TrEMBL record:
GO terms for cellular component: cytosol. The keyword Zinc applies. It is an enzyme of class 3 (hydrolase). Its EC number is 3.5.4.5. This is Cytidine deaminase. Keywords: Hydrolase, Metal-binding, Zinc. The lineage of its organism: Bacteria, Bacillati, Bacillota, Clostridia, Eubacteriales. Belongs to the cytidine and deoxycytidylate deaminase family. It comes from Candidatus Syntrophocurvum alkaliphilum.
Length: 129
């Protein structure tokens, strides 16, 4: 199984762990580090919507708190129709750590597409030179 399929499989599994009682929209993410480790996340909603955290950010924050900061790819699976893409906040957080990362998404028919972060967020904000 190649890394794309592996990440999507993990993202689909993590989607089952999402806490989405308000929107009903569940998302799972799986993040591949440069060391070959995978960190996962699922969205966690809150009745105060602004406190909701996306699956992608949870996976990244888990990895960073374990000392990982070099990422190669992230797989994302949502429960809606079509592809589930990272929101702007998630794209910016991804860009903080991995400007050359690939973003892999799956639709409800199990079709997989891959994008470079620079194509999804061409003008990312950065304080780094």
């Amino acid at each position: 199984m190649d890394h794309k399929q592996r990440l999507i499989k993990e993202a689909l599994t993590q989607r089952l762990n999402a806490y989405a009682p308000y929107s009903g929209f569940k998302v799972g993410a799986a993040l591949l580090t440069s060391k070959g480790e995978i960190y996962t996340g699922a969205n966690v909603e809150n009745s105060s919507y602004g406190l909701t955290v996306c699956a992608e950010r949870i996976a990244i924050f888990k990895a960073v708190t374990e000392g990982e900061t070099e990422f190669m790819a992230i797989g994302i699976a949502g429960s809606g129709e079509g592809y589930t893409f990272p929101c702007g906040a998630c794209l910016q957080v991804i860009a903080e750590f991995a400007k050359d990362i690939n973003i892999i998404v799956v639709d409800d028919s199990n079709n997989i597409v891959e994008y470079a972060l620079k194509d999804m967020l061409p003008q990312a904000f950065s304080l780094q030179k």
